[in-house]
Amino acid sequence: MVFDVFFLQQVINGLSIGCVYALMAIGFTLIFGVLNVVNFAHGEVYTIGAFVGLMVITAMAPPLLAVVPLVLAVGAASGVGLERIAFRPFRRFTDEASQKSRAMREATLLSSLAVSIVTREIMMHIFGGDMQGIPSGYLLQQPVAIGPIMVASGSLVIFATSAVMLGALQFLLYRTQTGLGIRAVSNNQLGARYVGINTDRTIVTTFAVGSMLGATAGILVGLYDGAISPHMGFAPGVKAFVAMVMGGLSSIPGAVACALLLGVSESIATEFLSSGWKDLITYSLLVITLVFFPQGLFGHGRERA
Amino acid sequence: MRKNAILGAVLGAMLATTAVQAADREIVIGYQAPLSGDRSQYGEMFRNAAQIKLEEFNASGKLAGAKVAITFEDSKDDPKEARNIAHKFLDNSKVVGVIGDFSSTVSMAAGEIYAAEKMPQLSQTASHPDFTKLSPWQFRNITTQAFEGPYNADWIIAAGMKTAAVIYIQNDWGISALDGFVSGFKAKGGKITATEAFNPGNRDFRSILTKVARQKPDVIYLAMFYEEGAAFAQQREQLGIKIPLYGTSSLYSPKLIELGRESVEGLHLATTFTPDNPDPAVQTFVKEYAARFKSEPGMFAAQAYDAVGIMLDAVAKAGPSVTRESLRDALAATSGYPGVTGATSFDPVTREPAKALAKMMVKDGRFQVVTGP
User: Fold this and answer.
1) Domain locations in chain A as residue ranges
2) Residue A195 and residue A189: Cα distance in Å, rounded?
């Protein structure tokens, strides 16, 4: 291995794939933060975003910027629906014992998994399992040369979107009333309820925002990849989950940093190992983190129920 | 008197029938394939193609003094069904040979019985290496990667390219494709600069491309399917890498061009069957199939069409008094059968097929046959 232009290209390749993971990890972590429950259906929201985007593009051929608000709306709607189907039924009991019940939390986790499987199968039924191509006018695949380094235009768009999303979320969480509510519910749901926060509404808002981000991620990655399929959410979903765990579960900047770290590690590892081994790198990093930093790299001590 | 006349007429009719029977012995070929269930679309294509070939053969008069019929049995892509069918065919003394089944697993389940009871079996699609190793009674007319890899290696060497990087999917098939190509390429004096595996489902090839490009091979050989092939070609274009692409026949799908667009321009591959092949035999088959079944025949229909053709030619060679033994020997002697999937010969020892593949490249947004190296 040599530190040459190819190596630099590998780092850039890693950053672009890390950005894809990060884009997904942001919404994932936001939703995890508020309920402390993994939302397995986030990958399907991402896929829905991509398919709705493609349908709008093929049906009406609008300018790309017009697709985004529509995808955002569909994302918000699917987030609200998801919360209603998979999460709300398990919050019927508001006493402290139920709120801290591990069984209740695991049931929620499984119900989100169920929604994810059903949604994926329905999409398979409607669209088929094949890859669907994106019309060429919308692809974010133009090569951009920065000196000797080649980057796809999509990588830059995804990088910029991740940065904007991260910034906007930090603003929402720390500078607005809604954000204060989300942080309060995340910290202690029962306490938040006692001080007069409408917890249900806060949770729905979080799902809507998180799923908007997820759906946008889906269409952007679809345009960048050039093809979408009902299974496209799975692989980045797993990586986003790993990034979230490494980042300390509820730290959004932590998840983004870890997503970039994963992308760059996978890419550089390809220089030394066969790329068939790259998932090994991801999971080794996860294990090492959990052994030496049980709170995650960017986590802090939190009350565990 | 009247009674006698009737008796005479009946006797006469009977004599006449026996005379016809003596002249036209009925020879039966068994065809087992999935005609119901998940894989029924393949069985349907086989049956459609087989009907066309059988009618052509019986009309051609290649076999004087006998008529050939094909009897179909539905194996449901299930090894248990396949074994029952095998016994049924063996018990029918008119059946001298069997075509099928579809998958390697099912073909081998029936094949064990045919091997023990001595019935020639020809599968149009079973590509597992062990299928033809069951016994001298098993044949196939589909090529495997052990044939295709060296074929492509020869092609690349003939085009003047000496170094290659191989990118392959990490599964049984991908490894067999890698082995086939690498051994063929090295045998011809080529040098392999890198072999890179990727996991099924992977969509990002930028790291692999960057790594491979550093060694500047003359060619990148892709052992993968069209989804990955299209993504690979697009990312190669984005990274500004100009190394030419060659690939396995698994990339041969209209979807490759639909997904990959301009980025797959210039990709080379060799395949057994293409409906665009200008060969008159191919064009006759494509037109006849499209006219009867309202769809363009694909590789599977073509494989079945040729399997039936090879079997019937062997019957013709063995003559009207064909037996299971003489049919096996005639099949083993198949050499240069002019089919729609290329001229097919069976190796007398391993019974593995060798074919002249159609060399194709993507040009102007479609697959076109390449002539010359």
Assistant:
1) 26-231
2) 10
